[in-house]
Amino acid sequence: MVVCLVFTLCFFVATSSGSSALKSAVNTSDSTHGALQSPPRDIEIPFPNFGRTARLKFAERRKNQRRELIQNLRDSINDQLILDDSGGFVSGQRICLPLKNTRGGARLKSNTAGASGTLVSKKPFDPNILVVRAMRQIIHGEFESRMGRSAVDRGIPTPKKRWRVNYRHENHTYIDLGKDFDMDDKSFTITALIRLRPSSGDKKSNRGARILSKRDSNNFGWEFVVPSYYTQTVSFYANQHPGHIDYGRSSIPGNQWTTVSIVVDRHTYENDVAVITPYIDGLPDGRGTFMQIIGNISSDALLTVGHARDENGHLSEGRRDFRLPGSPKYNPHFHGDIRDIFVWHTSLHKQQMRKHAAQILREIGRKPNPCPLGYEQLDCRCYQVFDDLRTYELAESACRQEGGMLAMPKTERIQDFLEILMQQSNMWSFWIGLDDRVQERRKVWADKSELHYRNISQFTKFPRGIPDKQYHTEDCVEELKTRPEFVWNDENCIKLNAYICEVKNTRNECTAAKL
Ligand SMILES: *[C@@H]1O[C@H](CO)[C@@H](O)[C@H](O)[C@H]1NC(C)=O
Ligand SMILES: *[C@@H]1O[C@H](CO)[C@@H](O)[C@H](O)[C@H]1NC(C)=O
Ligand SMILES: *[C@@H]1O[C@H](CO)[C@@H](O)[C@H](O)[C@H]1NC(C)=O
Ligand SMILES: *[C@@H]1O[C@H](CO)[C@@H](O)[C@H](O)[C@H]1NC(C)=O
Fold first, then answer.
1. Where do the H-state alpha helices sit in 388-504?
2. Do 427 and 382 fall into the same domain?
3. Are residues 349 and 391 in the same domain?
4. Domain ranges, residue 117
5. Model pTM greater than 0.90?
6. Could you read off the pLDDT of 442-495 as tens digits, one per residue?
7. Nearest CA to ligand 3 atom 10
8. What are the phi and psi torsion angles at 370 (to 5°)?
């Protein structure tokens, strides 16, 4: 393996006619046209005395390598794109492309080769060709139009199925959707509009709940589970292997209509490789997990909303929780409301998911995002995660320049929301506006209010409830992505972290926060 240094090149993309000019940038299944879709022409390589097999092998490797590079470049652009509420492309944003140090380039070692045993290509394939080509198109002003052209007609495809189920746990043990519909060996996307209603504010009362289940008595089939038993995130079950996996990392907010989705892409890669990405309100909860899912995941069980039943219609029981006294079985009964379920036999991409979620949320009266560019709204505040690395103090001043302050997750509701935003970032640790720089062990929020963390009715996310203060210099608080959940950690303020800013919402349409 060649080890590559990664440099970064940044530029601004502007759309001429505002946010609707580009609906989406990249078609992940098409490599035939568009700015990033055209791979460099094949490079002629002399093969003096080697056999046909070696030549074909080499060509094949080249092809795969190139496909992978194009995919990586697309992914890196897609990951960075800021989208507006309708999934449109936002003007004036900064995009970075990875530049690789390609000295050494692509080499081929061939066992079938002649005496030397090694063939080194004279003109190695250079991934930077793609980046340079994109740059040239930007300079010549063709980039957007090419991106736009490859992105026309990228609306939301019609779902294969849409059920208005109007499930409520008081009225339903489950809703039966019959046996007719299944996933087979296809890519698919499931979205549900749900409202978790944890009993008396205890989020853990709703655990391992089935939104949609089709799993028989031999455990063949699949299940869409939200919130998952252990981490209260988006989870999916497919056959016995891989079984249940918590694909999400963000907790699902309670008492609020929310769209939750799972996108299972079994098309982009071959050999049973699936890419599985959970979404919350149209935002991906993480970058997607690569998983092996073999063959047909259909089963003869009944398709059931709000619970799990086998092929005979029997309600299934949850597994035992050996961590609790008496190791009780948990109840997979969904606690709350499920209004709609949509299923596609294709994997929707980020822009489509965003647009689709916005559409559903608009239907139930959730207002469009009134925040400044790049910020996401919760109640009356707007939040944005910034990926550049800063000390606490410099992060503070960056947020001040934005007209706000470092974010203050004073409630579980805000914390849950920030987790979804942090999941959009590749970074691992993020400053929030909480520190005890002025007086040791007196933790003060960015708005100068104090966090009385010893009062157990105050919300905190410290693993042991209080700052650990391993060193008394740990005066500033960061959010850490850990397994299984996000936690707060006190840390030295001169550590360089990504950070989260909050600003007031710019329009005056915000009613009082419903916390
Ligand atoms: C991508 O492009 C291909 C070929 O033009 C098309 O068949 C496919 O439906 C497109 N995919 C999406 C998700 O739009
Ligand atoms: C569902 O339950 C609620 C309260 O538990 C009740 O008011 C409502 O009438 C029920 N709806 C139906 C369709 O049974
Ligand atoms: C998958 O299995 C089901 C039965 O479990 C069958 O009806 C269906 O045709 C299969 N699909 C494919 C693509 O083989
Ligand atoms: C603890 O916090 C709760 C909720 O903010 C507050 O009502 C209560 O008065 C606090 N208790 C003490 C002892 O400060």
1. 392-401, 412-422
2. yes
3. no
4. 6-152
5. no
6. 999 999 999 999 998 899 999 988 898 888 889 999 999 987 789 999 999 999
7. 184
8. -95, 25
**Within a domain: 408:** yes
In tens, the pLDDT along 186-215 reads: 999 999 999 999 876 566 678 899 999 999
How far is the C-alpha of 261 from the C-alpha of 283, rounded, in Å? 9
**Residues 13 and 143: beta-carbon distance below 8 Å:** yes
- Cα Rg of the chain, angstroms: 25
CB 223, CB 334: distance < 8 Å: no
Residue 309 CA to ligand 3 centre (angstroms)? 19
Q: Name the residue of 164, 167, 168 whose CB sits within 8 Å of the most ligand 2 atoms, as the mutation to test its pocket.
A: 168
Q: Closest Cα partner for 350 from 160, 96, 84, 161?
A: 84
377 dihedral zone (left: phi>0; alpha: psi -120 to 50; beta): beta
Determine if residue 392 is left, alpha or beta; phi over 0 gives left, psi from -120 to 50 gives alpha, anything else beta. Answer: alpha
Check if 458 has its Cβ closer than 6 Å to any atom of ligand 4. Answer: yes
Q: Render 165-234 in DSSP notation, one character per residue.
A: EEEETTT-S-EE--SS---TTS-EEEEEEEEE--GGG-GGGS-S-EEEEEE-TTS-EEEEESS-TTTSS-
Digit-coded pLDDT (tens) for 364-392:
987 767 788 788 888 889 999 998 899 99
